[in-house]
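User: Run a structure prediction on this.
Assistant: Running it now.
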Amino acid sequence: MEKAEAKKKILVIDDDEIHLSMAQNILGKKYDVIISKTGKEAINILLNGVIPCLILLDIIMPHMDGWETYNKLKGLSLLKDCPIVFVTSLDGADNRENAKRLGAAGYITKPFKTEDFLEQVNSILTNSTFEC
């Protein structure tokens, strides 16, 4: 009998309970979804040994915004190649350009269509070379 393949882990960082719940509901059937309400909490999760295959990161958060969180995450040697996607209500060209300049794997604006969101997440995970 073959062992079932473990679900890939996705870390979702967002201070909004509704968005965390939506991500859990949309992604939870196929992936192991870990949620965090702050950048600091996410970093603690990662430092305690959780290595996700993908990180979905909001930009507008109190205390430490998504830009600062992104830089801190990429500063962790184990995560330097982990794909990080910004999932945010900020839809300006400047923000998209900043995400691209930083090397983000994607930029998804809220609100999003469930099918489009899932398709983007699946595509990024399928094409990722990050070992998780």
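Helices lie at 17-27, 39-47, 66-74, 93-102, 114-127.
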